[in-house]
Amino acid sequence: MTGAAGHVLVIDDDPTVRDVVSRYLTKAGYQVSLAADGEHGLALAGDPTTTRHPDLVVLDLMLPGRSGLDVCRELRRRDSGAYLPIIMLTALGEEEDRVVGLELGADDYVTKPFSPRELVLRVGSVLRRSKDVAQPSAIPPASDGDLTVDASARRAVLAGEELALTVREFDLLAFLIRHPGQAYTRAELLEKVWGWSFGDQSTVTVHVRRLREKVEPDPTRPRRISTVWGVGYRYDPVTDQA
After folding, report:
1. Is the pTM for the entire model greater than 0.85?
2. Strand 142-144 versus strand 147-150 pairing type
């Protein structure tokens, strides 16, 4: 990371938002770059293999010209062994876009109007998680039938095919498969997988739905990732269902 705490790129067309966010992040020890539109933001993001590449992007969804969703999609396309965390800034009425952003691989979102202090806390939380991704611990692979999840290699294989998972999808699957048969609330999963003590629990719902589309033969009738009504979710090994 560059700077004491890291390098954050803020892409937002509102000069007041850019100024306030920049001041709070700088005070917290971050190096900050600013962009007023998507094209400029993508140019500042640069090549993920270079030393000037930011450690995290704060991205407004409502941008002039190229939309925030478009920028998010392009940043994810560029990722090549150098995952770039993204925190979206969304308005209250943008729930559909927020869900799409999470499905594209955004790591977190903050709803406008927001507390700058809360945003700084979210930045710190996401960066800590991204460090864990860059420095995986030596956790032995977990297997269930034709599914194997290797946390150290950040690799999940189903029926001989490697799964294309976002960082958060992988984290959620790795956590669930290591705790079979145990039900967790969405709040508990937010804390244990995302490292958040606060946040919109619909984030978990979106990621569970995405995971089911990738690990279940029929996502509408899941066998592995079960809904526990009134509680949350539970991983049920298919080897126990045979």
Report:
1. no
2. antiparallel
Residue 148 shares a structural domain with residue 128 = no
Angstrom distance (rounded) from CA 71 to CA 89:
13
Among 82, 104, 134, residue at a domain's last position: 134
Is 116 within 8 Å of 123 (Cβ atoms)? no
Of 112, 134, 156, the residue at which a domain comes to its end is 134
- What are the tokens at 214? 């990738």
In a domain, 93, yes or no: yes
Q: How many CB atoms lie within 10 A of CB 34?
A: 18
Domain that holds residue 21: 6-134
DSSP single-letter state for residue 191: I
Exposed e or buried b per residue across 64-89, where buried means at least 16 C-beta atoms within 10 angstroms of its C-beta: eebebbbbbeebeebeeeebbbbbbb
pLDDT (tens digit per residue) in 126-171: 888 776 655 555 678 999 999 999 988 888 999 999 998 877 888 8
